[in-house]
Amino acid sequence: MTATAPPHPLLRLFLDAAAGVFPQPDGGVTVLPAPGNGLEASVAFTAHAVVATALAPEQVLALGPDGLGGSLAVDFLRALAGPAGWVNSVDVTLCALGAGGGPALPALPEAADHPRVRYARTQRTDVRVHGDRRGLVTLASGLAGRRELSIELTAAEHGRGAGRALLADALTLVPAGEPVFAAVAPGNARSLRAFLSAGFVPIGSEVLIRPTR
User: Fold this and answer.
1) Phi/psi class of residue 92: alpha, beta or left (left: φ > 0; alpha: ψ in -120 to 50)?
2) What pTM did the predictor assign?
């Protein structure tokens, strides 16, 4: 029998934050192992940062991050990733609880080659696709094994409240009371408003990194 790997410690922090329990706001930095899949991450909660990386803690701390915004500074992220590493945008980390009650959106296996779905597969595993005429929803296992959700509306549906409605239906794909997470660029104000209106709550911010060292 193959032993099941224990959950990544960053997952516990995300689940605690979803329940309203956050790291101590001491301005400090917690260094955790890399979450796998070739990715690393810098996550900022209120006045506390978490860096998940293959580097040793003393190497990370020598780069000068802090829990007051320094863990998301451009110079720190570039140093963490290496000269040619990939650094994603800074995203707002959001969470909501599943609604359950039976899925309100059908599966869309025919959308497996959609750009949104292909992008999801570069960072996540077990990607599932649902949707209807309003747009697509992906559900997947993402950073540290958390359940992640993303959406993309069809062009004709923008500005009609479709994003909020699609997200409400997407939450029926998640068992009632179980947390689901999303990462939204703060500059994407329309998307951010839709997530907030659908009941998602901001818990921090994050940057994904694929380093080359």
Assistant:
1) beta
2) 0.93
Residue 152: both structure tokens together:
């993309």
Q: In this structure, what DSSP letter does residue 4 have?
A: P
Report the alpha-carbon distance of residue 108 to residue 138 in Å, rounded.
Answer: 10
| Whole-angstrom distance, CA of residue 143 vs CA of residue 185 | 16
Q: Residue with structure tokens 């979803």?
A: 18
d(CA 126, CA 194): 25
User: Each residue of 20-44: pLDDT tens digit?
Assistant: 999 999 999 999 999 988 999 999 9
Q: Which domains occur in the chain, in start order?
A: 9-92 (no CATH), 93-201 (3.40.630)
Q: Which of 155, 163, 157, 154 is nearest to 184 (CA)?
A: 163
Residue 10 has pLDDT above 80, yes or no: yes
